[in-house]
Every structure is written in C-alpha cells, then in structure tokens.
Design brief:
By secondary structure, the protein is mainly β. The chain is built from no helices and eleven strands.
C-alpha cells in the first residue's frame, strides 16, 4: 500500500485511542489540503484575489482513479453494547486572522459499528474519496470524528486512517465459495 504522510488522519505507528464513554467522541489529526497547517495563512494569491480564502472545490479532485480512505482497528474494542461511528468531516477556512477550521460538515459516515466488529486489524471504515457537501463548502481542512454510543468502550485503538491511491486489498476474500470446478 502506498500512502502520503500528509494524508494520514491516524499515522501508522501512532494509534488513536477510542476508549470513550457513551456519547463521547474524539477527533483524528486534521489534514490541511493547503499543506501548511491550521493557523497558517496562504502565502500566495488565490484565483487572482489576495483576500480569497483557500478551499478545494472538490476536496482533492475526484477523477478516474479515485483515492480511498482506509481506517483500521489496532487494539480490539471492548464494551458490551457499545458501537462506534466513523465520520469523514470537512471544514472551510475561517480566514484572517486565525485561519482555523470553521464548522465541521459530515461528508460520509459508517453508521453504528458493533463492538464485535472492532477486532484486531479489521477495516472498519472505507470510503471512496467524495466531493464535499454542501456544494459550496470549499473545504481546506479534513478530519475523522470517532463517536461511541450505547455503552462505554473500555479498550480499543485505531491503528491507522490513511488515504490510499486506490483500493488495494483483496476485497473478495469474504465472498461465498459456492461454485465447483468440473
């Protein structure tokens, strides 16, 4: 798998704890599509207007080879009745003087994932790269929000959350083998 270090919500080797009480959430690292980091103003003229605020029209470009977001469990989740929701969120730049993320908007989410599915090395979220919504959002910042519901999670980590150039796993490994060769 190839991955760009600047496109890691949870970098390999730096697991994110999801030990949370029901109703709590935690945010991954924030990816700045401009690459400079939150709080840093753009240092160039954007679309001919020096006062313009940077924002990617389609959050990285969605072309023929669509990147994939891949979120993997590190330490298995523990907590009877607990569920985890993973949401990909985007925010515009507030602009001068702070250059911080505005209100976070959810682009895609998994829905409630039962704790029984939070097993070691299990991929719990996989999204094709999506254009932002609403259409006029023009995000500069991206992040993942991990939310726990139903019961407390007393153990569990996310080992990695990466943007990869394309889906590179053997996705048919769980397909039914209901055929015979004659």
């Amino acid at each position: 798998m190839r991955a760009d270090a600047l496109l890691s919500f949870v970098p390999i080797g730096s697991p994110l704890s999801i030990v949370l009480n029901s109703g709590q959430n935690t945010r991954s690292s924030v990816i700045d599509l401009l690459g400079l980091g939150a709080g840093v103003p753009p240092n160039n003229v954007i679309i001919g207007d020096q006062l313009a605020t940077f924002g990617a029209a389609d959050a990285m470009g969605v072309g023929g080879m669509r990147p994939e977001l891949n979120v993997t469990v590190g330490t298995a989740g523990v907590g009877a009745g607990a569920t985890l929701n993973v949401a990909l969120q985007a925010a515009a730049d507030l602009g001068s003087p702070t250059y911080q993320p505005s209100t976070w908007n959810t682009l895609a989410e998994t829905g409630a994932i039962a704790v029984t599915n939070l097993t070691l090395n299990n991929v719990v979220a996989r999204f094709p790269w999506l254009p932002p919504f609403p259409a006029n959002l023009r995000p500069r910042y991206l992040s993942l929000l991990f939310s726990v519901a139903g019961a407390n999670l007393t153990a569990g980590t996310i080992s990695s959350a990466l943007v990869v150039p394309l889906r590179d796993d053997w996705f048919v490994k769980y397909a039914q083998k209901n055929y015979a060769v004659q």
